[in-house]
């Protein structure tokens, strides 16, 4: 039996990728359980924020099992689902490989295998936090986006309400890993998830990182009381 792979806040790419390889099969099921179904609502909000249109080319980076990519591709846009976990991509291809306007690419977020100004829109959901150099990933996303193109980042964040924030942190630390184990997933991976959320900057700090990478019209809105935040920006013309 394969030993569970647990990443840490060093975010070594090989360890993080290996951890996601191991949880790929049960990843979506576990996410639905641990978010009490909110993952579907957050995915719908992200798709609306990206606002994909037929004929556009869109990069979904950190696509995982491609649930978000498939949601974008239903618009008729050409969507590239990119991830550094081959196990996640294989699961995504198994589920959504029949979509003709959806392709799959193994990619490092800090060194994307795409040319400059290839995409009309770029997006990441719950993946920027797992990159060992997120600021470089934001610069790479900027590079591959066309002038006037759109950025949408959906990421776990910091609930602004003190009481709710305390309850949320208790849930992440004490309940979430147990839910993952009941769902048949590597619970140690969700210990890492809690650590990475706790260590992640808040909404204003991430907005500042996005501006530093060159993006303009940077804004965010909280979803589910700030459990996640939807960040939006544009590349200057």
Automatic annotation (TrEMBL):
It holds the Pfam family Ubie_methyltran. Pathway: Quinol/quinone metabolism; menaquinone biosynthesis; menaquinol from 1,4-dihydroxy-2-naphthoate: step 2/2. Gene3D superfamilies: Vaccinia Virus protein VP39 (3.40.50.150). GO terms for molecular function: demethylmenaquinone methyltransferase activity. Keywords: Menaquinone biosynthesis, Methyltransferase, S-adenosyl-L-methionine, Transferase. GO terms for biological process: menaquinone biosynthetic process; methylation. Its EC number is 2.1.1.163. InterPro entries: SAM-dependent_MTases_sf, UbiE/COQ5_MeTrFase. It catalyses: a 2-demethylmenaquinol + S-adenosyl-L-methionine = a menaquinol + S-adenosyl-L-homocysteine + H(+). S-adenosyl-L-methionine binds at residues 65, 83, 108-109, 125. Methyltransferase required for the conversion of demethylmenaquinol (DMKH2) to menaquinol (MKH2). Belongs to the class I-like SAM-binding methyltransferase superfamily. MenG/UbiE family. NCBIfam families: MenG_MenH_UbiE. PANTHER family: 2-METHOXY-6-POLYPRENYL-1,4-BENZOQUINOL METHYLASE, MITOCHONDRIAL, METHYLTRANSFERASE. HAMAP family: MenG_UbiE_methyltr. This is Demethylmenaquinone methyltransferase. It comes from Microbacterium natoriense.
């Amino acid at each position: 039996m394969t030993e569970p792979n647990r990443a840490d806040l060093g975010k070594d790419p090989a360890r993080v990728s290996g951890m996601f390889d191991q949880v790929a099969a049960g990843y979506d099921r576990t996410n639905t359980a641990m978010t009490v179904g909110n993952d579907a609502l957050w995915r719908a909000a992200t798709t609306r924020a990206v606002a994909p249109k037929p004929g556009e080319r869109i990069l979904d980076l950190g696509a995982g099992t491609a649930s978000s990519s498939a949601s974008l591709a239903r618009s008729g846009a050409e969507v590239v689902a990119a991830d550094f976990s081959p196990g996640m991509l294989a699961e995504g291809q198994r589920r959504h490989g029949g979509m003709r306007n959806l392709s799959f690419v193994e990619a490092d977020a800090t060194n994307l295998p795409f040319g400059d100004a290839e995409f009309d829109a770029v997006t990441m959901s719950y993946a920027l936090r797992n990159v060992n150099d997120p600021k470089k990933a934001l610069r790479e996303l900027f590079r591959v986006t066309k002038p006037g193109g759109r950025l949408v980042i959906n990421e776990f964040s910091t609930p602004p309400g003190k009481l709710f924030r305390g309850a949320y942190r208790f849930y992440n630390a004490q309940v979430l890993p147990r839910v993952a184990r009941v769902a048949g997933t590597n619970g140690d991976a969700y210990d890492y998830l809690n650590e990475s959320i706790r260590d992640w900057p808040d909404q204003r700090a991430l907005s500042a990182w996005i501006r530093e990478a060159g993006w303009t019209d940077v804004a965010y809105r909280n979803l589910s009381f700030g459990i996640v935040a939807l960040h939006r920006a544009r590349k200057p013309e």
